[in-house]
Amino acid sequence: RLRGRADVEDSALTLTARAVTVAATARTESRGCHHRGDHPGTDPAQAVSTLVRLDGDRVEVAVAAVAAVS
């Protein structure tokens, strides 16, 4: 049970860390600040947005094309 602001913040930070970890390990490349020792290179084919949905113990990972910048 969340009893105060610190509990809510801790819960939100833990959830965010879990989502970032799932998204980072879904990639088989290094990108930005997510450097992987087992996949040190960048793969242009993986220039996508990674969407993570956490629902209890269930985790869904999907990708979406990155919009072109003009």
How would you summarize the topology of this molecule?
Layout: H1 5-26, E1 48-55, E2 58-65
Antiparallel strand pairs: 1-2
Shape assignment = elongated
Structural class call reads alpha+beta
Order of helices and strands: HEE
Individual helix count: 1
Radius of gyration: 15 Å
* Order of neighbouring strands in the sheet with most strands: 1-2
State the low-pLDDT regions, or none: none
- What is the helix content? 25-40%
Please give the alpha-carbon distance between the first and last residues. Answer: 47 Å
Q: Mind describing the biggest β-sheet?
A: 2 strands, antiparallel
Number of strands: 2
Strand content: 15-25%
Describe this structure in words.
By secondary structure, the protein is of the alpha+beta class. Helix content is 31%, strand content 23%. The chain is built from one helix and two strands, in the order H-E-E. It has one helix at residues 5-26; strands spanning 48-55, 58-65. The chain has a two-stranded antiparallel ribbon with strand order 1-2. It is elongated and about 45 Å long. The N and C termini lie far apart (47 Å).
